[in-house]
Amino acid sequence: MAGSLSRRIVKVMGLFSGLQCVNIVCSIVKMKLVALWLHAAGVALFGIFQSAMETIAVFTDLGLRQSTVRDVAKNAGSPSLLARIATVVRRWSVLAGLLGATVMLSASPFLGKWFFGSYSRFGGFAAVAVAMFLNCLLYGEQSLLQGTGRLRQLAKASLWGTLLGLALSVPLFRWMGLDSVVLSIILYSLCIYGFTLLYRFRPEEKPQNPGLRQLWREGQGFVRLGVAMSLAGFLTSLSHLAFIALLTAMSSIEEVGYFQAGDTLITRYIGLIFTAIGVEFFPRLVTAEKSRRRMGLFVNHEITLLLLVVTPVATLFIAMRSLIVEILYSGTFAVIIPFITLAVTSCVLKAASWCMAYCFIARGDGRTYVTVEGIDALISLPVLLLGYRWGELEGIGWAYLVWYALYTLIVWIFYRFKYGLTLSRTTMLTILFAAAACAVTVIAARTLPGWATIAIALCVSAGCVVPLRRLLR
What we know:
Layout: H1 2-37, H2 39-60, H3 64-74, H4 79-116, H5 123-127, H6 129-147, H7 151-176, H8 180-198, H9 212-250, H10 253-269, H11 271-286, H12 292-319, H13 321-328, H14 337-343, H15 346-362, H16 366-417, H17 425-447, H18 450-472
Helix pairs in contact: 1-2, 1-7, 1-11, 2-4, 3-4, 3-6, 3-9, 3-11, 4-6, 6-8, 7-8, 9-16, 10-14, 11-12, 11-15, 12-15, 12-17, 12-18, 14-16, 15-16, 17-18
């Protein structure tokens, strides 16, 4: 059973990591063409509209993309219950979409004044309200596919929708100029939603038509959890924005750019692995919420498997960090190398804390999740500021290690004493091995020639192959 489970996780990880890579490549191509044809104004417009949509969505989409997965997964074994919850999820998605679109329309004159200096420049913001509505409908369909384990269909819909959105946007950039920005945003949402409808979940039994009272009664659980998750995300984003603002005041906009570049490498690119595994891990963990033993087994298994994948990636990243920076950015960004060399080792702690924290959401415990994330937001800001004052960008790398160590400790305290769950001896040994492997690679990167560091990273990778193969068997 463990072997088949491990193989399933690795397949899902490969599927969604590849999907995320395609999405990143499409994003890079899109912004490259925008920069060439629409220049800085086009890039700025994309940033303005996307930021406005994301900010409003935090307060209006009710966190339905993640919270509804829990209810869908819980009822996946009963066709009648699943048909009912599918209808409820879709109705709530429509309501959230209407709320988001209404708020965007209402705020569009003020956003036009804020960003463009005139109340009359509201047209673009009013138009992207369509994309906000489509996105909420999309989230409902995606959660149904994820909760019912239709992960391949979920990946196909996102892949083909992204590719078609890019293909349709390219000629618009060329022919319509800056007017194409808003239309491109809407087209992307429409294409992904359209392909998701082709692969949408279709219940075996005829869905019911719930009234407003039943709609609230059936949906209040995932709405409350979704609001808690949105609040947690808002606190994390607020802490990040506060650090950016203070860093700008303490140094310069160039320094902020270097930090953002390094943070993107750590959180977005290496974070692809975490995102990919979470697609499969969360619904599976929900099915074990009432069994402490099964939930503990799933978490221990997930941490062990994740570390055996992340550790080789982290060590090879450290060994080839200069080449990676040169390829993705340019030689002028070499100043971030000390930062990312240290920060990437925090992925070991992130793997452990991330898997444990999913238990809070799987149990529907939004209060604990918000508490943990709120404490984390309060801790991260002073730790990062102290790290920068002590050692500038390299100090931020050390701060990442301290920050994730404290976060892991906080998550473990709730995991252990509130839920009575423990980490197994094998899991603890795997964490120690991963931490030691990263530490040795960092020391080698600072003291030995490049070829020696690469050799050590390859040895670490080889050392992870044997236990990984054992898990897959």
